Amino acid sequence: MSKFERRNILKAGAGLAPALLGGQALAAEPIRHMGWPLVPMEGSNPLEVKVAAFTTVSKDVDASIKFYTQVMGFELLSDSKLSETMSTAPGAGKAGRRCALIGSPKSTRGATIRILEAAPDAEEIRPRAGGKVPPANCWDPGLLVMEGGARDAAESYHALASAGTPMISPPRYYFFRAEGDRRDLDVMSYAPFGPGGEQLFITINLRNDRPEWKEPSLHTPAGGCSLVSLDQRPVEEFYLKAFGLKRTSQMDCHQRNCNELIGAPRETYFLWGTLGNVSMEIWEFKMPEGRLYPCALDKTGLAMITMQVKDLDKCRAMCKAAGIKPVGEGAFPMPGGIRPKGFTIQGAVGELVEVIQA
Description:
The protein is α+β, with helices and mostly antiparallel strands.
C-alpha cells in the first residue's frame, strides 16, 4: 500500500468520528458518560425486598399438590376456593377460583408456592414445541424458572425421575466466579417441570466448605427466580426504579454442560447476575431476537413473583415517579390466612410482580 493510499484511509477514518458520536464533533470539555457498576451487597436493597411467593397456574391442582408434597417433600398449607375477588392482576379471575398454598414451615429459607386453578382450555404462558422437553427457544424473554436447592444431586434426581417428572437433562456440573460479590459457585443443577408446566431449577452446592444441611427435607422451597432478557439494561432499570435494587454480581456462561441443562444449544453464550440480596437473577442471552410472552394468571405455568417490601407506600410512590403504572390492585392470600395489602406491576420482559407489605 502506498503512502498516498494510507493517507486517504486515515482521512476517511477521521471523517467518521463525528458520525460515530451521533453527528457531534468532539467537545473541548469532558463528557459525562453513565454506566451500570456492580455494587456491594450492603445498600443494594433499600426496601428490604424479599421474594415471598411464586404463583403457578395449573389445570390439575391435585396433581400439583401431589408433586410438591409427595415428590418435593413440602407441606400443603391450605387448599380452598377464593371467597371474593382479591386481586385485579391480569387474568386473576373472580371469586370461586381454587387456590392452594405450599410451603415448608420449618425451612430456614424459601418462598411459598401458590397454585391457582386454570380453566381446562387455558393456554401456556411460554409455549413449548409440542409440549416436549427440552423447550424451544429458552432464551425467549420473560420469567423462566423458580430456583431452589437440594441436599444431594443423585438423591434429588432419583426422587423426581422415579416419579416420572419431566426434565431437560440429568444434573450437570459447572463452576463460576461471581464478579462483584466474590462468590465461587461449584454446583450441580438440573431443570424439572411441575404439573402446571412451570420450570424449576434445582441447584446443589458441591463446595467442601458448604454449611451443614439443616433443612427438614431433601429440597428447599424455591427462593429465587431467573428472568431472561436479550438486553439486561431495561430489566435492571425497571427493578432499580421500582424497588431500588442494584446489581451486585455478574458472570458469563459459555459452558456446554450448563447450556445442556437449560435446553440451550451447546455453543450458546449468555451473561447472568443477581440483583441485591434477593436471589433474583437476570440472564442476558446473546441472541438476535426472541419472542416475549407476557405473563397472565389465566394461562398455565409460572406466572407471578410476590415481592415483600418494608414500605409499600414508598414503593408505590417510587413506581409512580418512574411512570410504572399498576396493572392490578389487591393481593392474593398468604399462609396463615394473611390478606396483605398490595398491587401488581408488569416488568420489562412481561413478568407479573405482586408487591405486598411486609
